[in-house]
C-alpha cells in the first residue's frame, strides 16, 4: 500500500479537528466503521478498497459546497484510522408560523404567504393589504418629493465624499455653503456713530467709532476687525457668514490698502515666515548674549552647588541610548511648543495691526450721503438738545413760613432728633461753606429753634 499523499494527510488532520469539535466523545467509538453515513447534501457508501465514494445529487447546477467536501474528508480520515465518527444530523427546515399558515391559500391554488404577517397585519384582507400598500407607496413618493424640494432650495447639497485616512477611520467632507450658487460680493463700508449706530452679525451692535463692512444695498453689517479675524483664523465661518449667498473676496479691500498694510498682509499670508522670524530672533538674542551666557555657564559648572548635586544629574548622563533619544525628543517638542506659542502671539499682534491699517484706508461715505430719514432724525435731535439748553431753568417756588413750620413740626413728630443731627452736620461743614450759603443755613437753624 502506497503512503498517503500530503493533501490526504492535510484532509485527515482537518477531519480529526472537526470531529473532535463537533462530535460526541470518543467513548462511543466502535471498532468497525458504519456502512452508511447521511449528510445534508447526499449519502456516502463505503467501497471495498476502504475509500468512500460520495454520491451527490446530479440535479445540482454547481459543485458541492465546502461542507460536503469536509464531510467526505472526515469520513476518509475515519476509515484510514479505523474509527467511527458520528456526525450531527442535518438541520430540519423551519416550520411555518401560525400567521403564515393562517394567511396561506387553499391547497388547490398557488401557495402564497402574507409578507406582512410578522408585522401584525395577518388578519387583514387582500383589499385592506392592497390599500395599506398603496398608502405606504404614497408616503414614500411624498418623502422623495420633499427631499427634492429641500435640496433645490438649499442649493443642491453635494453628497459627502469619504476621504479614507487609515484602515479604521474615515472623514466626510461636505461642500461649503459658499460654493452653492453664490454670487460676487460688492463691499459697502460705513462708520458706526452715536447718531447712526450700526448693527453687527457677530457682536449684535458695533462699537462707536468703528467701521463696518457688508454687502452693498443691505444692512447686514459686520465689524471689520471681526471680519478680518474670521478671514485669518476661521475662513469657514467667513464663507458661511452671509449664509453662503456671496463669494467673499478681499481683493477690492487690498487694492485700497496702504503699503504698510500690504506688507503686514504678506507676512500673515505666509505660514512659515512668522515662525522663521521668531526662531531667528531667538537665535540673534542668544548670539548677542552669548558672552554673558557662557560666563554664567562656566560659573555654574565650577560652583560647589552644581557638583554637590552630582548624584541627581549624573543619572541622566549615564542612561542608555533609548532614554537619551526619548529625552531629546521631549526637549525638541518643548522647544517647538514654545516657538509655536510665540508665533501665535506675534500673529495676533500683526492681525490687530493689519485690521487697524486696513480700517484706516476704507472709504466711508460723507454725511451728505446718509439717508434723509436718518439725517432728519439727527437734525431734529440736535435741535431738541439746543432748545433744551436755551430754555432757562425754572426756579422752585419759595415756601412760606407756615409751610416750613408745618414741615418742621411733621419732621419733629416723626424724628425728634433730626434738628440736632442737622445742627451737628452744619457745624462740621460750616468752615467749608462760604458767604450766603452759610448765613442762610444759620438763619434757617435759628428760625427752627425759635419755632420749637
From TrEMBL:
Region (Disordered): 157-177, 362-452
Keywords per UniProt: Membrane, Signal, Transmembrane, Transmembrane helix
Residue intervals passing through the bilayer: 277-300, 312-332
Keyword RNA-binding carried by entry: no
Signal peptide: 1-19
Bias-annotated ranges (Basic and acidic residues): 157-168, 369-380
Biased composition (Acidic residues): 381-402
Protein name: Uncharacterized protein
Organism: Vitrella brassicaformis (strain CCMP3155)
Lineage, uppermost ranks: Eukaryota, Sar, Alveolata, Colpodellida, Vitrellaceae
